């Protein structure tokens, strides 16, 4: 009687094992095995981390094993089980791998195909075609679109983390509880005594050190020491945690009437302002997006304020970017232009207002919208339209890991009404919702293509700006990622016609545009892909956004925002409308109070932490792909990433302000924090 040896691996995460009954059925081209209980006498089967083997006897040879059906039935009480993979050894000694990487919950079954990737047009038998369609039918019922707020990208239809499908939940919900993590951060930072001191101002700027000195690192200390200096203010537009706004100024906007007379003392090349603009030495940052956004009014005892400033920057002869003019509103009739030649406190307060506006833009647009929410759209569409056997699913799933879970938790605790965001942020209480809605009206697909995004702001020249490390490192990681994606796409798509004939990949990109992005006309997300190059770019956008771009705007938050005056999360006085009124008391009374400062510090510390057992870019321990050519592409990708990390490390050794947010060894695979 022929016998097949079945090896099953149970996951290593907490509670992955099960005491339930597990049955297996082998489905081959020549027949099916009996439904077989997998159980060894006097042995605890399917323990966490275990790899167990069993013999399945059959009456006759089953032919090529096409599917494996696994069922879990209750033993005493329902006990979820995480299955990593199944390997079948045939009577003639061949091994067939069946990746699973899924939870079996309740009395459920899962039917697995072998680990080879197939495009839909390559499936020829009715058995595998039906399996493919059933998987997608079930996924579409499980992963449903929902509009959390009007004008937002669509999100998952789940109100709480516990309502999510088990496969996309965190291994431990406790580990990503924002309230718990913020409270832990506040305790670790020893700012417990301040966290409820709302309305209580600090006595002076040095007083902020009371909540700062507990955790130090190179960058945050340097920021504390140099935040008042113009070079530090300008440097952050290039390599801070929001390096995505600065643009080359080719013409001064009419709403920003800066004259040569105003700034001539700041210019170093014996050129007029107009000549400096033509020479490419003038840059601009415009926070127009914040215009008309309602400031946080959730605390009746503290009025909070927002501004929509415009900042003009100058590249001096030493290639440093320095501020030369700031207007704290979009209307020049109501807002004077502040200059470095103004009084010390006028200029300091103007810069603080810009930093506060940058913090709002960073948290809500650069971070929340353009990494978290967009990656969730890609993830939901992936689950709905790409079966596990599709090469694009296998390629993308490591980069979607925990993203839907972290976003659901954020909607549950962080950005919801009366959530943590309301406690300390000027855009809390609904302003953050308005800001996302407004930003969505100008968001485009091409702005997620890294080289296009850099070029659209006129920032591509390394000769013009030799210290724009975000750009330089980003280019390297983008090209390495694109090269890897190109290798994988080339294995399965031998022509453009293969892309056009793949109905599942076409459904995926259409779902992203028509449902995820709600078919907004301006967004220009493609509804179809016609060439391999278009597919390579699209998949590169998904991976880069979820990994490198998120790392660039997330993990530097403690570095740049822990010194409160450098990144105030809110302001308690309105922006000045006249010069000569500011003094140190005005500044202290404008900055966040002790309570809000403590919540802010807890937030940026918690958000800057890596996950336990973090998986960094190029680390793929779950082997969704089994083919050697893809494994070879992964190895080349890892080698390229290691070389980039080494280059960045060498460069940083000489820097007082190292830039490592785009170093591949510090880029997690996915948006999970």
TrEMBL record:
Pathway: Lipid metabolism
Primary location class: cytoplasm
Entry cofactors: Fe cation
Domain PLAT: 2-118
All residue ranges annotated as the Lipoxygenase domain in the record: 117-673
InterPro entries: LipOase, LipOase_C, LipOase_C_sf, LipOase_Fe_BS, LipOase_mml, PLAT/LH2_dom, PLAT/LH2_dom_sf, PLAT_LOX_verte
Subcellular location: Cytoplasm
Pfam families for the chain: Lipoxygenase, PLAT
Keyword presence, Nuclease: no
Keywords, sorted A to Z: Cytoplasm, Dioxygenase, Iron, Lipid metabolism, Metal-binding, Oxidoreductase
Family: Belongs to the lipoxygenase family.
Entry protein name: Arachidonate 5-lipoxygenase
Species of the source: Ataeniobius toweri
């Amino acid at each position: 009687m022929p016998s097949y040896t079945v090896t099953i691996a149970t996951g290593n995460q907490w509670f992955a094992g099960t005491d339930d009954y597990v049955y297996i059925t082998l489905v081959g081209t020549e027949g099916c095995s009996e439904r077989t209980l997998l159980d060894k006498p006097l042995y605890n089967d399917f323990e966490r981390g275990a790899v167990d083997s069993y013999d399945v006897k059959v009456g006759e040879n089953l032919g090529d094993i096409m599917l494996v059906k696994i069922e879990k039935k209750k033993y005493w009480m329902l006990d979820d089980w995480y299955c990593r993979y199944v390997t079948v050894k045939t009577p003639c000694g061949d091994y067939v791998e069946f990746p699973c990487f899924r939870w079996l919950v309740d009395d459920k079954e899962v039917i697995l195909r072998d680990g080879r990737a197939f495009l839909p047009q390559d499936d020829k038998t009715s058995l595998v075609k039906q399996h493919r369609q059933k998987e997608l039918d079930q996924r579409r019922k499980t992963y449903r679109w929902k509009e959390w707020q009007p004008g937002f990208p669509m999100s998952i239809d789940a109100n709480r983390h516990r309502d999510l499908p088990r496969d996309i939940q965190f291994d431990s919900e406790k580990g990503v509880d924002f309230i718990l993590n913020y409270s832990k951060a506040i305790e670790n930072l020893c700012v417990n005594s301040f966290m409820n001191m709302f309305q209580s101002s600090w006595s002076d700027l040095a007083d902020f050190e009371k909540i700062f000195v507990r955790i130090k690192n190179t960058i945050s200390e340097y920021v504390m020491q140099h935040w008042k200096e113009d070079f530090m203010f300008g440097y952050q537009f290039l390599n801070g945690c929001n390096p995505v706004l600065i643009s080359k100024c080719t013409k001064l906007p009419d709403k920003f009437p800066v004259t040569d007379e105003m700034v001539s003392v700041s210019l170093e090349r014996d050129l007029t302002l107009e000549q400096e603009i033509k020479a490419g030495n003038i840059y601009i940052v415009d926070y127009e997006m914040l215009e008309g956004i309602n400031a946080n009014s959730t605390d009746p005892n503290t009025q909070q304020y927002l501004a929509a400033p415009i900042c003009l920057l100058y590249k001096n002869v030493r290639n440093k970017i320095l501020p030369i003019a700031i207007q704290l509103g979009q209307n020049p009739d109501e807002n004077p232009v502040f200059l470095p030649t103004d009084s010390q406190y006028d200029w300091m307060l103007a810069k603080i207002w810009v930093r506060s506006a940058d913090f709002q833009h960073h948290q809500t647009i650069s971070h929340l919208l353009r990494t978290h929410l967009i990656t969730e759209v890609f993830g939901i569409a992936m689950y709905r339209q790409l079966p596990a056997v599709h090469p694009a699913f296998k390629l993308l799933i490591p980069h979607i890991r925990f993203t839907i879970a972290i976003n659901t938790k954020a909607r549950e605790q962080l950005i919801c009404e009366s959530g943590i965001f309301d406690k300390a942020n000027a855009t809390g209480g609904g302003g953050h919702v308005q800001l996302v809605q407004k930003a969505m009206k100008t968001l485009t697909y091409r702005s997620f293509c890294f080289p296009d995004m850099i070029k659209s702001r006129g920032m591509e020249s390394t000769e013009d700006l030799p210290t724009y490390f975000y750009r330089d490192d980003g280019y390297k990681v983008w090209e390495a990622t694109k090269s890897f994606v190109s290798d994988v796409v080339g294995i399965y798509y031998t022509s453009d016609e293969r892309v056009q004939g793949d109905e599942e990949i076409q459904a995926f990109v259409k779902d992203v545009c028509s449902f995820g992005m709600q078919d907004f006309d301006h967004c220009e997300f493609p509804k179809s892909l016609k060439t391999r190059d278009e597919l390579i770019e699209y998949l590169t956008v998904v991976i880069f956004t979820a990994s490198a771009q998120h790392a660039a705007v997330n993990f530097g938050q403690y570095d740049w925002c822990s010194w409160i005056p450098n990144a105030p999360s809110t302001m308690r006085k309105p922006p000045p409308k006249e010069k000569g009124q500011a003094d140190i008391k005005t500044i202290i009374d404008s900055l966040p109070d002790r309570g809000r400062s403590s919540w802010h510090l807890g937030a940026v510390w918690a958000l800057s932490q890596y996950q336990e057992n973090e998986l960094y870019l190029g680390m793929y321990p779950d082997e969704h792909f089994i083919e050697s050519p893809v494994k070879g592409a992964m190895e080349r990708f890892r080698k390229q990433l290691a070389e980039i990390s080494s280059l960045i490390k060498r460069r940083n050794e000489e820097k007082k302000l190292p830039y490592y947010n785009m170093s591949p060894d510090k880029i997690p695979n996915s948006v999970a924090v």
